[in-house]
Amino acid sequence: MGRFTIYFATDIHGSEQCFRKFLNAGKFYGVDAVILGGDIAGKALIPIARGAGGAWEATFFGKPIRMESEEELEEFERRIRTQGFYPYRTTPDEVEEIAKHGEALDRAFERVIGRSVEEWVAMADEKLRAAGIPCLVMPGNDDPPMVKRYLADASWLTQAEDQIEELGPYQVLSLGYSTPTPWDSPREITEDEMRVKLKGLIARLEPGKPVIFNLHNPPYDTRTDRAYKLTSDMRIQTAGGEPVVVPVGSVAVREAIEEVQPVLSLHGHIHEARAMGTLGRTQVCNPGSLYTEGALQGVMVALDKDEVKLHKFVTG
């Protein structure tokens, strides 16, 4: 078993710019494999309707936007995608229907997410197969359940969640759920449910073969789970003029790492917690996320047998 290198990124939230950078990262950094952690899909749909005068109109962050030309419209759509949202060209009647009925919004959102993930899967299959670079991908807590189905249709990249996948000389255990958050995202489970899922996966590990964890939720009270403490109205709490930071990770995830002691444990979920730490013999990593700026944060990790030889945080 020789040195094996991995590039890991996560939490791109529908940013096509970040996804394209991820597809190029393996070849650019010269690694043996790439892993994309959870939260693949964007967070919101932005309807854009053509008004009676021919101009396109939308509302973005509560501000009305009016676009007179196709060039202005395309530039607005690019800006939306960079922020991790989905532009949706539609009619004033459908905008009204979406505003009145949540089901209409859900249907439109699922259609757009489905098309986007299908396109991404096709793009990844073509580009990564040509480069000969293995790729593991999984959904996260913010991803609707349908995302996992589309990932499973890939012919080259591997939908890794709820699986033990071989990656070079390592076995990778992956799970994209999170414990409860203030945002009530689509794939949240209790600590007890997390514990049950992880125990089931751990039971499938091959004894004696080195392990990598790929878990969207970081372990509790580590450098990888520090987040801003929020008030009841979702504002960042401060003390002495500085934001208050608290651990928000999963106790069950921490327990699983302490039990198995994988060589490396890869996480995301907390965008501001970019860090490498340790739990016993395990190196625990969260590369963070700056998807709203179109910047892809990632980490390169070089492993040799049951050791992390070096790591380097990178931004592209």
Describe, in plain words, how this protein is organized in 3D:
With 316 residues, this protein is of the alpha/beta class. The protein is built from seven helices and 20 strands. It has two domains: 4-41 and 106-315, Metallo-dependent phosphatases (Purple Acid Phosphatase, chain A, domain 2, 4-Layer Sandwich), CATH 3.60.21.10; 45-92. A six-stranded mixed β-sheet has the order 8-7-2-1-19-20. A six-stranded mixed β-sheet has the order 9-10-11-16-18-17. The chain has a four-stranded mixed β-sheet with strand order 5-4-3-6. The radius of gyration is 20 Å and the shape is globular. The mean pLDDT is 94.
What is this entry, summarized?
With 316 residues, the chain is an alpha/beta fold.
